[in-house]
Amino acid sequence: MEKLLAQKKLTSRWYERFPRALPVGIFGLTMAVTVISVAAIETAEDRRQTATTAQLAQSVASGLERRSNANAAYLRSSAALFATQQMVEAPLFRTFIRQLHLDGRYVGSDGIGWAMKVNSADVPTVEAIMRNGGVSDFAIRPQPGAERPFVVPVMYLEPNTLRNRRAIGFDMFSETVRRAAMKSAERAGQPTASGAVVLEQEGHEARQPGFLVYMPVYTLNSDPSPRALRGYVYSPYNAQRFLESSIDANHLGGAGVRLFDEDASGKRLMAEVAPVGASGRIIRQALDIAGHRFILEIEAPTTPMLSIMSVMSLLFGLLVATLLLVLARLLTQQAVEDRIALAWFEQQSSIRNSLTRELNHRVKNTLANVLSIISLTRRRATSLPEFADSLEMRIRALSATHDLLTQSDWGTTPVMAVVRAELAPYAQDAQRHLVISGPDVELAPNDALSLGLAIHELATNAAKYGALSVETGQVSVTWDMAGENLARIEWVERGGPAIDTTVRRKRGFGTELVEKIVAHELRNPVDLKFEAEGVRCSLLIPVRRRGDFAIRQGRG
């Protein structure tokens, strides 16, 4: 395995260096295809909607023309009949019109009327005849001026409703739009529609625009002389009612319909069926009603931003793109993790020898410490039991610090933990007075071992001869940072037995251990003083970064 790892060159591929690029690229490509598909579907849907609207426009235009053609046929029949009569009287007119419309409908118009051509000089006579015939308030309006040779007032209008009676007596030749249509009908001899007007029978109601269709009635001559115009059979149309009666709103599907009159001045809206929302897609259709040009506009109803098929395609594409994104992400992540695992195994293989050397080094250091402790203890012991007891306590102190290092995986160890571990036997006694305080400082393993030995020796000495040997004694262990990479630890005893500073003291094992072994391991001198108030010891310990001593690194 080690040979294979050594032979294999661990060069990362591009998708391992950029693990998100491949999933995002696949997701973007899939969504781009989906968006193009949705755009194609929407384009086809727009074309279908346009074709449907055009078909609807043709259908509505055909319906309006059928209505107007049916009414034109009635007007031709009426004109043919009235041309044979010497006088178009009210009973004859009403009877004939009622026979034409047995069902009471007027194919979208407001009815059929008779407008007779009357010379201006005969206006009083005609008014008198009409009043005697039952129309008591008949009067031609507006009264013709001297420059007008004749008038064309409305004589009858069926059905005989209150609304239609408002138009009786109105001179249609007095109004410009109506007069132009009447002259055009006289020249063509065919039903002719006027432009947009407000019907006289609208009264004071909402004066909606409308139009009229005129059919001229001539006097029948047996000779080839020109025929004389007797009047007009006509139909008035309220444009809104004409439009609504000619279409089936249920078949519009929410589309809007507008009818415009188009003349030299432009377009004028005459009638409208509002769409369900304004989509802006409009189809225009030219419409010929009795020889007059109208414009029909069909506006498609608003539709959702996306059709059902587009929404389904978009959701499906999003689902597929997401699945591919997740799959590609998992595969690239697995490739990255495999590469990391191979690198880690390679690293572990390369540092195995270093770990072995480090273990040997630490074991040698520990054994050297043990040999030093044994040597010093043997020289200072006066009996075998004293030697065994002293050696056991010092080995236990070394073991306690080793336990702390094991718990931290031989990483950094807090100063607080080392001090508390060594002073634990004395902290359990309520009569002991211990003060332990300082900032959070982490020590390297070997430095923690040295500090543990020093604290143990100082605590043992205090328990035998110093502040920990009496109830009034107090031991204070404090520390702070003496520099960026250096910690100062202060051991101060107070309240113990007084120390005679005038007598030269014999150097004991603890003193030599602290001043020699600990100082050597910490690479800094130890300041140990025996003051009258008690022992004071100051240690300087290096604070090293983890990388300076740690060999084993975690994966990842």
How is this structure best summarized?
This protein is of the alpha+beta class and 556 residues long.
Q: For the record, what is the CATH homologous superfamily label of one domain? A: CHASE domain
Q: Averaged pLDDT, please?
A: 80
Main beta-sheet annotation: 6 strands, antiparallel
From the alpha-carbon coordinates, what is the Rg to the nearest angstrom?
A: 59 Å
User: Which range best describes the helical content: under 10%, 10-25%, 25-40%, 40-55%, 55-70% or over 70%?
Assistant: 40-55%
- In terms of per-residue confidence, which ranges show pLDDT below 50 for 5 or more consecutive residues? 551-556
Structural notes for this entry:
GO terms for molecular function: ATP binding; protein histidine kinase activity. It catalyses: ATP + protein L-histidine = ADP + protein N-phospho-L-histidine. By secondary structure, the chain is an alpha+beta fold. Among the domains are: 88-299, Beta-Lactamase, CATH 3.30.450; 381-548, Heat Shock Protein 90 (2-Layer Sandwich). Helix content is 47%, strand content 20%. The protein has 13 helices and 19 strands. It has helices at residues 2-7, 14-17, 21-82, 90-100, 123-132, 162-165, 176-188, 239-246, 308-380, 384-407, 415-427, 445-464, 509-522; strands at residues 112-116, 118-119, 150-151, 154-158, 192-193, 197-198, 209-218, 229-238, 256-263, 266-273, 282-289, 292-299, 413-414, 434-437, 442-443, 474-483, 486-494, 527-531, 534-542. The strands form 5 sheets. Strands 1, 4, 5, 6, 7 and 8 form a 6-stranded antiparallel β-sheet that branches. A 5-stranded mixed β-sheet has the order 14-16-17-19-18, with helices on one face. Strands 10-9-12-11 form a 4-stranded antiparallel β-sheet. A hairpin with a 2-residue loop joins β9 (256-263) and β10. The chain starts with a helix and ends in a 14-residue tail after the last strand. The model is unreliable at 551-556 (pLDDT under 50).
